[in-house]
Structures are given as structure tokens and as C-alpha cells.
UniProtKB/TrEMBL annotation:
It comes from Streptomyces flaveus. It holds the Pfam family adh_short_C2. GO terms for molecular function: oxidoreductase activity. Belongs to the short-chain dehydrogenases/reductases (SDR) family. Keywords: Oxidoreductase. The keyword Oxidoreductase applies. Residues 9-200 form the Ketoreductase domain. This is Cyclopentanol dehydrogenase. The keyword Oxidoreductase applies.
Length: 267
């Protein structure tokens, strides 16, 4: 069996209703994992889980607001009940609200801190509690956090977002260290996706025009591509395959790492 095969593994993907999270859930399922999608968008989340089941995978949806400790508690226990264990948690749920530093809106920054930083931190917390040897799943496993190329290079119009994604990077390292030292058996890594034209990515590009930073969304995207050695935008599958790798035994000696999946933009 390939070291990248996830047959028998049980995964929870946050923000899996659409966009990158839906692609990650699909790629994990294709690699053999049983997958639960956790999201605040119930209808879209159920539809994504249905389509995974139609393709032959074991998949389900749980309602999860990553900013709420109690919501995590219940989503993780439902996942373990549904799948019979938990080996992989992908902390993908995130929000991006563009804005110039000079016009910073505290409510927008608070929202990004809540979802991107607190939501990811709670995800790691509940993954550890479930997967460490004394937890209800108890077999160790892998956590993959979704940071961003915005944590590795400065890009105008997204200061608050970049700050939260840099926090995800640091949180990943500390969590990996604690897990190792305390014998949890859980590897913790993050990926830095480049720009992908999901709803979030397309809105970010449009915001660059609204903020007066580029003459059009197309011009902003053109400059991103020009800054990318591989010469194109990211695709959902590019990110999803990297998550499968970090979740798999192929990455068994990798923890506390941040993997750029950005065509070289952030090098
Ligand atoms: N698209 C990009 O260009 C890009 C680049 C770098 C990093 N990322 C990161 O990748 C992740 C996914 O991005 P995307 O482009 O798919 O975004 P998206 O907006 O298309 O999807 C985000 C998903 O997260 C869910 N979500 C939001 N708040 C939540 C909460 N409180 N609890 C549970 N779920 C919640 C949404 O309902 C949605 O399904 C995010 O963390 C984002 O910051 C995206």
C-alpha cells in the first residue's frame, strides 16, 4: 500500500462546504479516508457530503462554528460517533475581509481574528484532546492548518488577514512542539496556499479595484501571476493534494512545518 493511501483514516475538514475545503474533503476521500465536513453553511455542506457519498466515499456533514468551543466539542464527538474514530483534522475554515490599514474597521479585524486564529486554535485543541492517547479516538494523527501566502509576503489591502494567517503559522509551530513533547502522537503542519479563484479568492481580487490599489481585478490577478514563477493561479486540487500529503504517512517525520503551495510566489 502506498504511504499516501488514507484507507481506514477518519478526517474532519472545517469550512468544507465549498471552495478549497470541499476540494480537500474530496481529495482525502479519493485517497481512501472517510470524511466529515464541518461548516456553518448547512445546505451547501450537506450537498458536498452527498456528492462525496455518491462517488462512493463515506462522508457526512456536521454543523460547526469554529469560533465556538462548545460547537467543536459536539462536532468532534459526532464525527467520532459517525466514523468510529478521528485521525485527521484540517483547519481550513477562514474569512478574508480586505481593507486599507488607514481605513481599518475593528469589527472586520475582530471577525478575522475569531474565525482564522481562534477557530484554528480551537480546532487544534479539540483535535489534540480527541486524538492523543487518552482521547476518545486515541490513535494520534495529523492536523493540517490552512495559512496563506499572505503570511509569507506582504500584499496590499489585506493587512488584517495577513496578520491572522501569520498567527496560524506560529500557532502551528507551538502546537507541533507541545504535541511532540507531551507524546500526543499528532503531527501539526500548515500550508500557505497562493491565490485560488474560489469565492474568497475572486472577491479578494475584486476588492483590489474597489480599494484603488489596481485598475481592475484582472490587473491585480495579472500581477499575482507575474509574481508567480510557475506562471499561473493556484487551483483547488493543488491545495487539496498538499493537504493529503501532509495528512498521510508520506509526511510521517514532518511536523511544525509550513508548506508553500503557491507556484513559488512566496519564495
Ligand atoms: N482562495 C484563496 O485564494 C486562498 C488563499 C490562501 C489561503 N486561503 C485560505 O483557505 C481557506 C479556504 O478558503 P476558500 O477560498 O475556500 O474560502 P471560501 O470563502 O470559498 O470558503 C470558506 C468556507 O469556510 C466556511 N466558514 C467560514 N466561517 C466559518 C466558521 N465560523 N465555522 C465554520 N466554517 C466557516 C464558509 O462557510 C465556507 O464554506 C481559508 O482559510 C482561506 O483563508 C484561501
Amino acid at each position: 500500500m502506498s504511504v499516501y493511501d488514507l484507507t481506514g483514516r477518519k478526517a474532519l475538514v472545517t469550512g468544507g462546504a465549498r471552495g478549497l475545503g470541499a476540494g480537500m474533503a474530496e481529495a482525502l476521500a479519493r485517497a481512501g479516508a472517510a470524511v466529515v465536513i464541518g461548516d456553518i453553511q448547512e445546505e451547501a455542506g450537506k450537498a458536498t457530503a452527498d456528492s462525496l457519498r455518491e462517488s462512493g466515499a463515506t462522508a457526512a456533514f456536521v454543523s460547526l462554528d469554529v469560533t465556538e468551543d462548545a460547537s467543536w466539542e459536539s462536532a468532534v464527538s459526532q464525527t467520532i460517533d459517525e466514523l468510529g474514530g478521528l485521525d485527521i483534522v484540517v483547519n481550513n475554515a477562514g474569512v478574508e475581509i480586505s481593507g486599507l490599514v488607514a481605513d481599518l474597521d475593528p469589527a472586520d479585524v475582530r471577525r478575522m481574528l475569531e474565525v482564522n486564529v481562534l477557530g484554528t486554535a480551537l480546532g487544534v485543541k479539540h483535535a489534540f484532546r480527541a486524538m492523543r492517547p487518552d482521547g476518545p479516538a486515541g490513535n494520534g494523527g495529523a492536523v493540517v492548518n490552512i495559512s496563506s501566502v499572505a503570511a509569507t509576503i506582504p500584499f496590499p489591502g489585506i493587512a488584517g488577514y495577513s496578520a491572522t494567517k501569520s498567527a496560524v503559522d506560529r500557532l502551528t509551530r507551538v502546537a507541533a512542539l507541545e504535541s511532540g513533547k507531551l507524546g500526543y502522537g499528532v503531527r501539526v503542519n500548515c500550508v500557505y496556499p497562493g491565490l485560488v479563484p474560489t469565492e474568497m479568492g475572486a472577491k479578494l481580487a475584486a476588492d483590489m479595484e474597489t480599494l484603488g490599489l489596481w485598475p481592475s481585478a484582472e490587473a491585480a490577478v495579472g500581477d499575482v501571476i507575474a509574481l508567480t514563477p510557475l506562471g499561473r493561479l493556484g487551483e483547488v486540487a493543488d491545495m487539496a493534494d498538499a493537504v493529503v500529503f501532509l495528512a498521510s504517512d508520506g509526511a510521517r517525520f514532518i511536523t511544525g512545518a509550513g508548506l508553500p503551495v503557491d507556484g513559488g510566489m512566496g519564495m
